[in-house]
């Protein structure tokens, strides 16, 4: 609400926290509403405290939403681990435990020194041939354990996927070929590849 004396908006915390503006776990359409509200506060000449409150709430929402997604993913993975009897992977001892930038820095240095494969092998051997680490805030696993590789590539191939980020990032290089697909598309690509190899 505009104050006629000052020309600035009054702080209306009740409006900011109302359920139609800022529920804790918003669906994507409501997330856009929140983002639009923050952007309008930033672009308009509004009372500074209201803008800061809105930015704080947006940050809180982002943290809570990310935590909720991580919790759901963890529950799903733990259930799957129990079903197949997986042992827990050894965690990499990160110094920076939010994004895993310390390991990224180590790997980038080894890449510049042409020692990337050796460094990766050293890191994996720290964890019984399988190690869990943070890759820009996401949990990832590297394994060279023969039984794990056999399970992933042959016995339970259909249960494992490449993941959307990998497919999107490698699509310009490999397209939808054998190195960038899984499931039925991989079976078709593999059959085609085997036919081509038999003709050589």
Short descriptors:
disordered N terminus, 3-stranded mixed beta sheet, mainly alpha, 200 residues
Write structural notes for this entry:
The chain has 200 residues and is mainly alpha-helical. It folds into 3 domains: 1-70, no CATH class; 87-155, no CATH class; 161-200, no CATH class. The chain is 58% helix and 7% strand. The protein has a 3-stranded mixed β-sheet. Helix 2 runs antiparallel to helix 3 and helix 4 (101-112) runs antiparallel to helix 5 (116-125). The longest helix is centred in the N-terminal third of the chain and has 37 residues, at 48-84. The chain is extended.
Please describe the topology of this protein.
Blueprint (H helix, E strand, L loop, with lengths): L12 H5 L10 H16 L4 H37 L5 E2 L9 H12 L3 H10 L4 E6 L2 E6 L2 H10 L8 H11 L9 H16 L1
Parallel strand pairs: 1-2
Antiparallel strand pairs: 2-3
Helix pairs in contact: 2-3, 4-5
Q: What is this structure, in a nutshell?
A:
This protein has 200 residues and is mostly helical. The chain has helices at residues 13-17, 28-43, 48-84, 101-112, 116-125, 146-155, 164-174, 184-199; strands at residues 90-91, 130-135, 138-143. β2 (130-135) and β3 (138-143) form a beta hairpin.
Rg over CA atoms, rounded to whole Å, is 24 Å
Return the average pLDDT rounded to an integer.
75
What is the percent of helical residues? 55-70%
**What is the total number of structural domains?**
3
For the biggest β-sheet, the strand order reads 1-2-3
Instruction: Give the topology string: H per helix, E per strand.
Output: HHHEHHEEHHH
Count the helices. How many?
A: 8
Separation of termini? 77 Å
